[in-house]
Amino acid sequence: MNNHFYSRLLGCFIAVLIFGGGNLMAQPVLNARNIALGGGGTAYLNGIEANFYNPANLSVYDREGSIHFSLGTLGTFFEPVLSSGNPKSQFQRYTDTFLPYEPGEQGITTTQRTTILDENYSGNNLTSEHLSRADIIWGGLQWIGDKKSYSIALRTRLGSRIEVGKGWYSVEDYAQNGTSVRDMTLIKQTQALHEISFGFAQEFQFLNGLIPRINKLYLGIAPKFLLGGTYENSVYNGKYITDDQNNTTYQRDFTFYSTGIYSDMISSYLLSGSAENAIDRELNNRFLLKPTGYGAGVDFGLTYLIPLGSDVSILDSGESRKPIEKSLRIGLSITDIGVVHYSSQPLQLSLSQTNTQINAQDPVDNQFIGSAGQLPVFFDEATELPNPFFEANSQSDGNFTVSLPTSFNAGIVLDINRVKLMSDLTLGLSNTAFTNKKLVAHFGVESRPLPYLPLRFGTTLAAGKPLRFGAGTGFESRYWDFSISTQVLVKSSTLTSDVVGGAIAALRFHL
Question: Where is the DUF5723 domain (predicted)?
Fold first, then answer.
């Protein structure tokens, strides 16, 4: 397949996601239902999406039919550095996150720089984190039996995480451990993954006699095979440190890993010395989805289901089986256990910690959003700072392996007729393009004023992050359904809100 084909595919992929509908930290999957519910789903999500969140839910029989298949689920999230009330501009800023950097597109005024500082660096925060995310589940098939369930699902996901020090936008120093610090951190992580997942779930019967017979414990596992798209992991730790004698030292270290498109561009940059020329030469008609590595992983989960009241439908089987309507579910899962091995145009650079005395860098005139190629452009424009790409004291083109974005998830759902109340906790094992190490709480409610009309609302809470509120609806009949949702980010420091995410589920069929 040629580059033009891949370029068209990426363009369609991003456009559909945006029009179908940004930080859902550590969230294993985005779809129309859990975006509306604030992002959780450990005990709630079933269907083929459960492959990626909690495979044990594949055996939870809460709607009629033994065969279920989907034609696609689209989800997206965007956490802007500088938001725009203009939908067209907001759309462009999202797509710019994943596409090659365009000089001049991210310029900011003095007023906009002040807005960035007010909205993203409140209190004593010296860094600001921003994520962009896009998921598409191309399709899948699920079969639910009396004792065992099976499924297969195909997914592509894109993730981008940036972390930017306050010192790029302000010359102010802040007291820290007896010194004054101006933080120049600049982190960019981008990853694309194509996955095929095979789910299996069944009732765990070894606890018979230890738990009531009417209660059920389901275990699920979903091994998967992956192709890794273009990858970048850049970590620049820079600080101006002023001691009590007013001596200022600039301290920095740098690590850089890339494959495919990024390696081509950086190699060209190291030869030419011009980031903009390297972008023009190497990034045209290239993009994130082109495979550069391969890997394998597994998602694992368990769900404990407790029927409530007189609902004993969980004991039914065969043709007499009915969906359970009143229950308490408790779910636990570990997702994305595995690795990706990158072998296509790998590049590694590193700079060990270095200290020098340099002049103070003026605040930048561009916002950093993490576009492909923007990192070296930023250092080109920071004329007072040593450029870490050229300072690097170690370089390698050897293959490398990275872990998948593992996360731990726990959730509970109270299901009473037409109302479901749910709560989840998610925690990423490490900082990646998809996760960070902050604990995130999700709360949601689903109500059905009419049997076929679900209304979903939810919120997400995380330390140091703005509130997010979700809402969604859909239509559900006996044999098919669809859902839509949106999510709004509320910044308490400025009392503003932005539409930053959304999802749409294509038709799902139930036979």
Answer: 80-475
